[in-house]
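Methods, example record. To illustrate the input and output format used throughout this study, we show the complete record for Bacterial Fmu (Sun)/eukaryotic nucleolar NOL1/Nop2p. The sequence lines were provided to the predictor; the line carrying structure tokens was produced by it.
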Amino acid sequence: MGGRGRSRRTQRKHFRDGRENVWKNSKSDPQQEENGNNTNKPTHWQPFAVENAFFDEYYKEQGIVRAEEWDSFIEYLRRPLPAAFRINSSSQFCIDIRSQLEDEFMKSLQAEGTDGNEAEGIKPLPWYPDNFAWQSSFSRMQLRKNKNLERFHEFLKQENEIGNLTRQEAVSMVPPLFLDVHQDHFVLDMCAAPGSKTFQLLEMIHRTSEVESLPSGMVIANDVDVQRCNLLIHQTKRMCTANLVVTNHEAQHFPSCHLRKNRVNASELGMTELLFDRVLCDVPCSGDGTLRKAPDIWRKWSVGMANGVHCLQLQIAMRGLALLKIGGRMVYSTCSMNPVENEAVVSEILRRCGDSVELVDVSTELPQLICRPGLKSWKVRDKSMWLASHKDACKHGRTGIVPSMFPSGQAHIDASDIDQKITPGEICDDGNLGNSSNGDDEGEPNDVLVTEVSSLPLERCMRIVPHDQNTGAFFIAVLHKISPLPVFQTKSNKNPRQPHSDNDEKPKQSEDGEEKDNNGMDVDVLDVTNEESVEATAADACVLYNESDDALLDSNPSKKLKGTEPEQVQTPNKVSTRAEKANDKRKLQIQGKWFGVDPVVFFKDDAILNGIKEFYGIPESFPFSNRLITRNSDTNHVKRIYYTSESVKNVVELNFLAGEQLKITSIGLKIISSEGLPLLLPHMTKQIACASPVDFKHLLQYKSIKFPDFVDNGFREKIASVSLGCCVVVLNRGNEGSSDPPKVDKSTIAIGCWKGRSSLSVMVTAIDCQELLERLLVRMETEKGSCLPENKPVSESEVNEDSETIIG
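The corresponding predicted structure is encoded as:
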């Protein structure tokens, strides 16, 4: 366990290192410190050099751009990346924000330019639909430091915090567009953090939904790192959606919650395993496509960064295809330029999946996005040696280089290179030949390299390079699943690589003891606990998954529930009795709790539910049944209640039936809060009142107003009739106040308030109040009339600070 834990931590640190600050404190001389000559002089900060000779040599040899383009390509890579952002298309104010950018900021920022090179200021990205994505000619540093850009910078920060905008690299917006997500789709984002693409997927799910209903689809956003999951939750929380689940799993071991055939409740759910219509597979990578954003990668770059993650990327992609429904679409993407992480992974997928998966040409779907076709030929470099085929790797003893890295994907087997102890034609346990050539590790192969050329249609992949449209670099491949994946056959029970211990979960076996798949064919199931690092060998790291058998997931060390931990730490001599094992199983079924993660429990307290319905006048037709979730198994001490969509509810029920395989870190939205207001508002008949524009404006300005200070007599009377406690105030734009309760549509503006004995107080954050005030000034003329007295009305706030309070 310790070795595996260290290797995973090393992987995460390796990827985080590429995102360090560009500016570093120059180190002091250690010898001067020892001699006591270290003076307290001011610290000097210096940028790293944005160049790397090995980088230049490698990519010139790979031919990712033509020779005549190289200077322009490298020049753009050394420039800071322009800031980009995207308007939330499901936001109530998306049209207003777009108009503000087009009519106000485009003109005011045009004169600023960037270092005299450009005078564009900001402009919409021509390939993004409806002008909802924008790029500025200013870097993030310029936005922070330039006083003339201060107002625009504050606008970006405010709208981003509220959720109307998402600051996101331009090329990062591309993969979700090629997924073609509909509102009824089940979508999996396998490596989701920090969450900008997940937010984009949620926008697509909610794009055409009606105000009184939720989409029938959902998004599951997953990440392997717990801290990055928290960042993901913070990012997606701005969306206020009941159609999202956040999970914490290794992507290559994501569970499918497969139910056994004897589960009688499976037919009620309409599904026996968790499969997806769309899968976004944006895998961990070396990240050299982000050099403009993270220049520190220049000094750290090496070929080993890409070679080390190739097999992990292949594992994740194959798992994504296994979880994809027939007829579904998966997008594989990286922010790397390296063909070992890009075309090599895609070509190996196509070889292994055969006719069941098709590489789709989508280059014409966004006609104004400049994309280049994928490479069909490349070489692999290991340390200082170029390798054109797996034969070269075997000849020079490069054990970390696997066949799938090369265009042909063919493993080389040469009887003359095999040790006497190994039968001719047999491969060692590590996936390489026995004692292959012990030639010198350094230097070039003696024979002339003949680069392989792939026969697969890799030109359907898409490469985005920086100098085409002033962006970062990116790689995208769109895969369509036509039929079930083939059963991957190999020698079963003949490879002694990792025998199962008595305490290990064993794959399904036939009567004669051979490991079988569902079709009775011999298969070898990987014991993933044998993995030691990302740079795994071919036999261990590049294993394939049979989509019909999740037995291998049971050996994943990260998939351990609380009830199974005692088995993990007990000594080999200690044998549990059958009664103790049965007791542990019952605990699993009752608790269903992962270590450090609160349980997911359906909230079914009818007394509280009836109180909520009565207080807010919510009709019985509103779907509360089995839609409410709490994260506390003790229902007597529930602090928060979360509401979920029908699709999320079905996934939770499936997860319960499957033994709680999903490690859920976040689910649904808080129902009795500002998050849940858009959901409940169309169904409320009580605790709701319409305010005139003047009174609504004053509430946003002063946060708390005494009843006599309201201008509109009708609103004053209405709010007086409302019960003490939480209530909703709706802006009356002329048609809302004519009915009781007011009519609600997508354009309705409403805020949550707290009614005290003598005053009404706003339960909205200061930044939300500021945003609503600005939108009111833009969208309508404020009525002229009586104003509040000069002195700001201040009352002793009777506000209950807990916005979760249900009834006054």
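Annotations derived from this record:
The chain has a mean pLDDT of 77.
The radius of gyration is 30 Å.
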